[in-house]
């Protein structure tokens, strides 16, 4: 069914980089006998899944949408892939993204342009744009994305699907090609909150192969989906409905708060005073980490090699031809911020700001059950509109980045339409309180 739907709509959406049809059909055929005979009760039995192309898949090309990794075929599966397969899901294919997950519109892919299924003149968001578009277009039942500064939630908002960034450490990053290791998290994109909770059940948990994975018990995320949110306390940061947030978006978020009030929750305005520094701090920290993580792509160990007479020129040519403009911009920025003489003024300062931002969240979440606001300041923008203006592009993540810096979980759920395009409501919770986030999201949905 998935492949039939892909054949119908993929020409318009272009969400996939590579399909896995033969292996998927084989897996689906074998799964029945195999799981049933072993008595395995796979919660995701036979469900078609799409994976962002920065999640490694054994024997299936994994490019991170970069020309540099054009020929890379991993020899193992990421932990999340093993877990999905153990739960019975079938990998349909690998999804388009911004190169190495750097971007907010999918326009930084080294291969193709993915389009928003609601309006093909618009971007799907990024960097997990293929992950959001494929679910919105009905090509797969669910997908996995990765979120470093908003890359699950912003495309989920733009494409009208549900996208969850779990608590940092909740889901193993083993086999996720690292962009900014202290911020990256894998999470599910689905049509409904309940589906999302099922997928997170399957992929969560401690993994000794990821030193930052948390040894914290995984509850059943579907257990709290009762629709009951009576007495819950919601915080609404004034910074999240202020200047820069589109008026239509604001109206929809206010309506959402009225809906939640009708369900018995209460809300109050609060402040996250350091949020205004989040984007600046993020681009220093994320770029610094990226410049170190991407050092391994030298044309020797992985990917496409441009052979020269000596090693240094081989490195230089392979990297300058393999990486796209945005990736180069981040590597230069990060290398600069980490260089001696500038380290204290930039990297160290940004780390200090990060601590203040985290404290803001801890203070508010000590008094409230969840924080609510929009996911993105606008609806999906036109293809080409921001691509030559990196600073405007970076501002799309102004409401999602603080959450990654704080390490807390957050979901984007559809909250109506403006200009014929979906709007996302963001619900942010305490560390490891995904159940509470799902509970509120489900009641609102
Ligand atoms: N848009 C942000 C960036 O370009 C976030 C990306 C992400 O979350 N992977 O860095």
TrEMBL record:
Amidase domain span: 1-437
Summarizing the function annotation, the protein's role is: Allows the formation of correctly charged Gln-tRNA(Gln) through the transamidation of misacylated Glu-tRNA(Gln) in organisms which lack glutaminyl-tRNA synthetase. The reaction takes place in the presence of glutamine and ATP through an activated gamma-phospho-Glu-tRNA(Gln).
Give the domain of life.
Bacteria
Q: Which reaction does it catalyse?
A: L-glutamyl-tRNA(Gln) + L-glutamine + ATP + H2O = L-glutaminyl-tRNA(Gln) + L-glutamate + ADP + phosphate + H(+)
Q: How does it assemble?
A: Heterotrimer of A, B and C subunits.
Q: Give the similarity note.
A: Belongs to the amidase family. GatA subfamily.
Q: Does the keyword Nucleotide-binding apply?
A: yes
A GO molecular function term, named singly, is: glutaminyl-tRNA synthase (glutamine-hydrolyzing) activity
User: Any idea what this protein is called?
Assistant: Glutamyl-tRNA(Gln) amidotransferase subunit A
Q: What SUPFAM superfamilies would the database entry show?
A: Amidase signature (AS) enzymes
Q: Indicate the residues that form the catalytic site.
A: 52, 127, 151
Q: Tell me, what is an example of a GO biological process annotation in this record?
A: translation
- Would the keyword Cell membrane turn up in this protein's UniProt record? no
- Keywords assigned by UniProt? ATP-binding, Ligase, Nucleotide-binding, Protein biosynthesis, Transferase
Q: Which organism is it from?
A: Evansella caseinilytica
Q: What class of enzyme is it?
A: ligase
- Pfam families referenced in this protein's UniProt entry, alphabetically: Amidase
Tell me its EC number(s), please.
6.3.5.7
GO terms for cellular component: glutamyl-tRNA(Gln) amidotransferase complex
């Amino acid at each position: 069914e998935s492949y039939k739907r892909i054949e119908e709509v993929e020409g318009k959406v272009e969400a996939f980089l590579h399909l896995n049809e033969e292996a998927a059909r084989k897996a689906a055929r074998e799964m029945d006998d195999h799981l049933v005979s072993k008595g395995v009760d796979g919660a995701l039995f036979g469900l078609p899944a799409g994976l962002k192309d920065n999640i490694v898949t054994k024997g299936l090309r994994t490019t991170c949408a970069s020309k540099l990794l054009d020929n890379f075929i991993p020899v193992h599966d990421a932990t999340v892939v093993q877990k999905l397969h153990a739960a019975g899901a079938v990998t349909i294919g690998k999804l388009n993204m911004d190169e190495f997950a750097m971007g907010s519109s999918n326009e930084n892919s080294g291969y193709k342009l993915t389009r928003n299924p609601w309006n093909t003149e618009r971007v799907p968001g990024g960097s997990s744009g293929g992950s959001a578009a494929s679910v919105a277009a009905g090509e797969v039942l669910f997908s996995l994305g990765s979120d470093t500064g908003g890359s699950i939630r912003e495309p989920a908002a733009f494409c009208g699907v549900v996208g969850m960034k779990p608590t940092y450490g909740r889901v193993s990053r083993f086999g996720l090609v690292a962009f900014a290791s202290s911020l990256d998290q894998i999470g599910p994109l689905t049509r409904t909150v309940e589906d999302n909770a099922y997928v997170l059940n399957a992929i969560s948990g401690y993994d000794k192969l990821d030193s930052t994975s948390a040894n914290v018990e995984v509850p059943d995320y579907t257990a709290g989906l009762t629709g009951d949110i009576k007495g819950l306390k919601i915080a609404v940061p004034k910074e999240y409905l202020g200047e820069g947030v589109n008026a239509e978006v604001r109206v929809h978020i206010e309506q959402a708060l009225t809906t939640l009030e009708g369900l018995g929750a209460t809300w109050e305005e609060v402040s996250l005073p350091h949020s205004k520094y989040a984007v600046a701090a993020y681009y220093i920290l994320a770029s610094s980490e990226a410049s170190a993580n991407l050092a391994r792509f030298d044309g020797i160990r992985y990917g496409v090699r441009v052979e020269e007479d000596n090693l240094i020129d081989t490195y230089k040519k392979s990297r300058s031809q393999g990486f796209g403009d945005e990736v180069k911009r981040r590597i230069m920025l990060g290398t600069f911020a980490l260089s001696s003489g500038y380290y204290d003024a930039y990297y160290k300062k940004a780390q200090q700001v990060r601590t203040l931002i985290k404290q803001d969240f801890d203070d508010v979440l000590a008094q409230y059950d969840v924080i609510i606001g929009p996911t993105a300041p606008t609806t999906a923008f036109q293809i080409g509109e921001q691509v030559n203006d990196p600073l405007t592009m970076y501002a799309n993540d102004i409401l999602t980045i603080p959450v990654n810096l704080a390490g807390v979980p957050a979901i984007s759920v559809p909250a109506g339409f403006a200009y014929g395009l979906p709007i996302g409501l963001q619900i942010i919770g305490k560390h490891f309180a995904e159940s509470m986030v799902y509970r509120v999201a489900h009641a609102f949905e």
